[in-house]
Amino acid sequence: MPKDSKPNSGFKYSEAIKELQEITDYLESSEVDLDEAIEKFDRGSKIASEIENHLKNAENKIKTIKSKS
Amino acid sequence: MGNDAITVSEFNSLLNQTLTFAYPEVVVEGEVSSFKINQSKWIFFDLKDEHNLVGCFMTIYQLKTELEDGMLIRVKATPQLTKWGKFSLTVKEVELAGEGSVKRAFEMLKSKFEKEGLFLEDRKRELPLYPQRVGLVTSNQAAAFNDFITILEDRWSGLDVEHIQVQVQGPSAPDQISKAIEHMNMFGSYDVLVVIRGGGSAEDLQAFNSEEVVRAIYASNIPTLVAIGHEDDITLSELAADVRGATPTDAARRLVPDKNELLEKIGAIQLRNFNMLEGISAKGRSVLDSFYYSIEARINNMRHTAADSHTRSINSIDRHMQAVLSVIQLQRKLLKSLDPSAILSRGYSITRVNGKVIKSSDEYISGAELMIQLHKGQINIKADAGEKDAKRQQTELRF
Questions:
Q1: Across-strand partners of B215?
Q2: Which residue has the higher pLDDT, A69 or B260?
Q3: Which residues in chain A touch residue B191, judged by CB atoms under 8 angstroms apart?
Q4: In this predicted model, which residue has the larger pLDDT, B203 or A9?
Q5: Is the pTM of this model over 0.90?
Q6: Is the complex ipTM more than 0.95?
Q7: Domain end point (choices B313, B336, B359)
Q8: Does B391 score more than 70 pLDDT?
Q9: Would strands B356-357 and B350-353 be described as parallel, antiparallel, or unpaired?
Q10: Are B54 and B86 a contacting pair, CB within 8 Å?
Q11: Do A34 and B266 touch (CB under 8 A)?
């Protein structure tokens, strides 16, 4: 995920949520390595807080373009 | 009558100038009759009321709605006398008048689009779950716009909404709306294209039943979300859209998820992940525990084995030592029994000649000194050769 998280530009909810889901799927799978699980859990926590941060702080931008006709 | 007569052409031209001056544009309402299309481009029909009738002419490109006999319409037109001397209205715009006409035109167009497959379910696309860029076509003068934006604000964050301002009713609305949709498809990179309008009469919503708007929505490469009027108003634009919103507010709800719900969901996911991690760690601990248990069990086992072995060794050494001791004692007894001094004590004696023990009288050398060792002390004696045999006999007797 790009570090530059200017609201509305860099952050992609769909990608963040997809990655979070993948982490959950990994942790739920039977073949899990403890070290990797800890690493993935940390990554998941980071993504979750990024999503939370954007949901709470990012603004909706509304721009009006005048019709040409 | 003098020479001031004018030609027919001059007359028609004069009359047309007068008409144009007096009626540059008229709006006439009437019922359509004798509707026909010539060469797929010229349209002729009559407008009539209970008592009168006027002919109308227009090109097919100017007609934005379905027409048939019996419909009540309003035309914006210019009165004109043709070169054949026939009076008619040259029509620029047609507007359906009255619910009946609107319904009829709607049914005609709907049936046409259905035949073309514009409303087929299997061509409808899903909207992205988390859209980022949204193209919005509506009028910001209406409540629908504010409702839509307010709901978006409540539900989601970080959207880029680009809005094209259009008229949502009236004669220029279909053209503006369809051009805005085309513009967004050509120049924008949107995840979803939203077309909304608040409630109104059937006539007010007419633009969204126009062929050009419906076709623009159908042709959109961007997935479309259309919500026109109230829940009961179903326009052809909505039928052609990928997703229909019952109202503009409903469209906003369909466009974005609820952030509070997502926050809860993410919290639940994190909790679940944590529990899974705990489970994995506990599993790891239990593997470690069983490893330690098994090691401990082995060590104990070895300890017991070693102790047993130790005991066995000691016992074996003990037994060995006992055996050795008994052998030693036996040998000691044997040695003791073999001790010559012990035999002497029982009355035996040892006779030596020149220090050598003699066991037979044959070994006696005549004249040699005999040294007789007794239990206590010794005797040295000399014997002569003549008495050898007698002495030998005596010796034998003594022994």
A1: none
A2: B260
A3: none
A4: B203
A5: no
A6: no
A7: B336
A8: no
A9: antiparallel
A10: no
A11: no
Q: Which residues of B touch A69 (CB under 8 A)?
A: 172, 175-176, 179
SS (H, E, C) B308-347: HHHHHHHHHHHHHHHHHHHHHHHHHHHHHHHCHHHHHHCC
**Which residue of chain B comes nearest to A25, CA vs CA?**
B273
Residue B306 vs residue B43, higher pLDDT: B43
| CA separation, residue B388 to residues B181, B298, B349, B358, B383 (Å) | 164, 89, 19, 15, 8
Residues B305, B228 share a domain: no
Give yes or no for A8 touching B (CB within 8 A).
yes
Task: Point out the least confidently predicted range of B324-338, B345-359, B381-395.
Answer: B381-395
What is the pLDDT confidence band of residue B55, given thresholds at 50, 70 and 90?
very high
Same structural domain, B330 and B270: yes
Cβ-defined contact of A11 to B158 (cutoff 8 Å):
yes
Residue B210: which residues within 8 A CB-CB, separation 6 or more? B64, B65, B173, B174, B178
Number of Cβ pairs < 8 A linking chain A and chain B: 113
Tell me which H or E stretch contains B43: strand B42-48
Write the CA distances from B254 to B61, B193, B197, B248, B290, integer angstroms.
Answer: 36, 12, 15, 10, 53
- Mutate: best of A62, A63, A64, partner B, most B CBs <10 A: A62
Position A2 in a domain: no
Please tell me what DSSP assigns to residue B27. E
- Statement to judge: residues B83 and B132 lie in one domain: no
Distance from CA of B279 to the nearest CA of A (A): 10
> Searching chain B, which residue's CA lies closest to the CA of residue A56?
B157
Q: Contacts of residue A59 in chain B, CB cutoff 8 Å? A: 157-158
Residues of chain B above pLDDT 70, percent: 93
From the list A32, A44, A60, the residue facing B153 with the nearest CB is: A60
pLDDT at A6: 45
Residue range B237-287, pLDDT digits in tens: 999 999 999 999 999 999 999 999 999 988 998 888 888 888 888 877 787
Lowest mean pLDDT among B64-73, B185-194, B376-385: B376-385
Please indicate, yes or no, if residue B328 is contained in any of the structural domains. Answer: yes
Q: Is B112 within the bounds of a domain?
A: no
Q: How many independent structural domains does chain B possess?
A: 4
Q: Is the dihedral of CA B253, B256, B260, B266 positive or negative?
A: positive
Amino acid identity at A11: F
State how far residue A50 is from chain B, nearest Cα, in angstroms. Answer: 11
